[in-house]
Amino acid sequence: MSDDTEKGKDEDLDWGNPPSPDTPENRKKSQHAQLIIVILALIGIFLPGLLFWLIKG
Questions:
Q1: For the chain, what is the mean pLDDT?
Q2: For the CA atoms of 39, 42, 47, 48, what is the dihedral angle to 10 degrees?
C-alpha cells in the first residue's frame, strides 16, 4: 500500500504542459486572444445596461 501512496505523490507533482516559448508568433496569438476576451467582456458589461435603458426608456 505504501507504494501506491508514494506513486500518487510523484504524479501530483508532474501535471500540465510546459509553458510555450515566448516567440513573436506566440506573443501575437496571445495578444489576439486577449483582445477577443476584452471585446466579449465589454459586450457582456454594456449590453445588459443598454438593453435595460432601451426597454425602460
A1: 84
A2: 140
